[in-house]
C-alpha cells in the first residue's frame, strides 16, 4: 500500500480548479488528506476564463488518488462566501491543517512589457484584487481554524522566488506588484503564525505545464516534449503535480517550521525531499533561468532536470 503520511489531515486548496491548484490538491489526496477545493468554476458555473475545468473534476481526481476530495464553489473576493467555507470546514472537520492560497485568475488581465501608464487600468486593478485581496480575505477567515491544531501549514503560491524576483522586472507593473505582495504575505504570516505554532511559506513552481500552457503549444501532458522544437527552453517545464508533491512533502515534514517565512521553489524542494515529477526527473527551473541569463550560448535544459 502506498504510504499516506497525511492521512487524517484536512487541507483547503483555494483556487483548485486547474493548474497548480489542481496539482496540489491531487498530490495532497495521494498523501491521504481530505482536501477541500474552492474556486469559481464549478458544474454549471464558468469563471472569467470561460474554461471547461471544474472543481468537481478536481475533487474526483483527489479521491481517485487516495484522498477525499470535496468541491466547494466560492468567490474569494466575497468575504461572506469565504466565511461560509470556513464555517463548513469547522462543522465537518473541527479544524484545518493545511491552507494553500493559490488564487490567481489574472492570466487575461496583464500585458507583457506594457508600462503602467499605457496598461488598461481596470484590468490592472482587477488583477491586484484577484491576486492580493483574495489571499487576505482567505487568511482572515481560515487561519483561526488552522491555529486550532498544532503544526499547521500555510502555503502562499506565487511566481518566482524572493531572490529571483528581487532583481528582475516581472512582465508588467501590475504582475510584478502582485507576485511581490504574495511573497511578503508569506514573510508577514511567518511572523504572525510562527509564535503560535504554525508555519507559512511562499512557494513557486517553475515553468508549469498548466492546461492553458499545453493548449498554447498545441500539445498534451503526454506529448509536451514536441513543443521544445519551437521553444527549446520548454524543456525545463514541469507538470502541476510536481509543485503539488512539493506541498505534500512540506506538509508531511515534522520540521517544516525551519522554512517559516521563507520563499521556496518546487525544484529546490525536490532536491531537499527527493520527490520527482511524473517522468522521474527533478526540473529546477529557477537555477536554469539564472544560468541561461549568464550564458554565452544555448543552455541545455536536460542538465537541470
TrEMBL record:
Q: Which superkingdom?
A: Bacteria
Coiled coil (UniProt feature)? none
State the InterPro entries in the record: NAD(P)-bd_dom_sf (IPR036291), SDR_fam (IPR002347)
Could you list the residue ranges that cross the membrane? Answer: none
> Which NCBIfam families does the protein's record reference?
PRK08303.1
Record-given protein name: SDR family oxidoreductase
What organism does the record attribute this protein to?
Kitasatospora putterlickiae
